[in-house]
Write a structure and sequence with these properties.
Elements lengths: L8 H6 L9 H6 L14 E7 L2 H9 L4 E9 L8 H5 L6 E8 L6 H10 L8 E2 L2 E2 L5 E5 L2 H19 L6 E4 L4 E2 L7 H4 L4 H17 L10
Parallel strand pairs: 6-7
Antiparallel strand pairs: 1-3, 1-6, 2-3, 2-8, 4-5
Helix pairs in contact: 3-8, 5-6
Organism: Leeuwenhoekiella marinoflava
Function: Has an important function as a repair enzyme for proteins that have been inactivated by oxidation. Catalyzes the reversible oxidation-reduction of methionine sulfoxide in proteins to methionine.
GO molecular function, one term: peptide-methionine (S)-S-oxide reductase activity
């Protein structure tokens, strides 16, 4: 069960991260050149963080053109991070997903819209009941075109929806570390988990209601 499950929400509310702004490590990473990944069998990769990776993985896997989403860690510099290290805030990594997608079916821009449309990008270091920098919102870019797409969408949403309150970080992608095997497809494999019932499924359903045109046929 997640360390930030509903059963121990009160504990994590009192233990929320004290450093509410970008860390020194964030600031250093923001100055790095992005790493461009190569397509695999025609599928490109995009990387996002917006809270519980169980939730984010399920959202992206419901989208047309997405082959799969893989849960993992990104945004920090520690090599081979573990779930225990990340969950306890021992690293600067955030829970993240790698999205394998067919650019002929869905564009990077639409993936960014999915990213913003499936979270609250105005809650600093928090998403739903999960609190701490490991749950912060990050859109990773691999080149200048992706960075511009992300920044343009943020500007548009700040003007039309969020009144300049978006706190999502925009960082150059460096490295993605795949999470332990039991985290992969967790929502699908553990439908009776209290966290899945109380947080992940409602979050997925809210996204489906907002973006029905982007859903795979079997995701409706």
């Amino acid at each position: 069960m997640r360390l930030c499950s509903l059963l121990i929400l009160t504990f994590f509310t009192t233990m929320s991260c004290k450093n509410t702004g970008p860390s020194a490590e964030d600031q250093k990473m923001a100055q790095l050149d992005p790493v461009q990944t190569e397509a695999v069998d025609g599928y490109e990769r995009a990387y996002f963080a917006s809270g519980c990776f169980w939730c984010v993985e399920a959202v992206f896997e419901s989208v047309k053109g997405v082959k799969e989403a893989v849960s993992g860690y990104s945004g920090g510099t520690i090599k081979n991070p573990t779930y225990k290290q990340v969950s306890y805030g021992k690293t600067n990594h955030a829970e993240a997903v790698a999205v394998f997608y067919d650019p002929k079916v869905i564009s990077f821009r639409n993936l960014v819209l999915v990213f913003f449309g499936s979270q609250d990008p105005t809650t600093l270091n928090r998403q739903g009941p999960d609190r701490g920098r490991q749950y912060r919102s990050i859109a990773f870019y691999q080149n200048s075109d992706q960075k511009k797409i992300i920044e343009d969408i943020i500007a548009e949403l700040n003007e039309t929806v969020y009144d300049d309150q978006i706190v999502t970080q925009v960082l150059p992608f460096q490295k993605f570390w795949q999470a332990e095997g039991y985290h992969q497809n967790y929502e699908r494999n553990n439908p009776k988990d209290p966290y899945i019932q109380g947080v992940s499924i409602p979050r997925l359903n809210r996204f489906k209601k907002q973006f029905p045109e982007l859903l795979k046929d079997n995701a409706h």
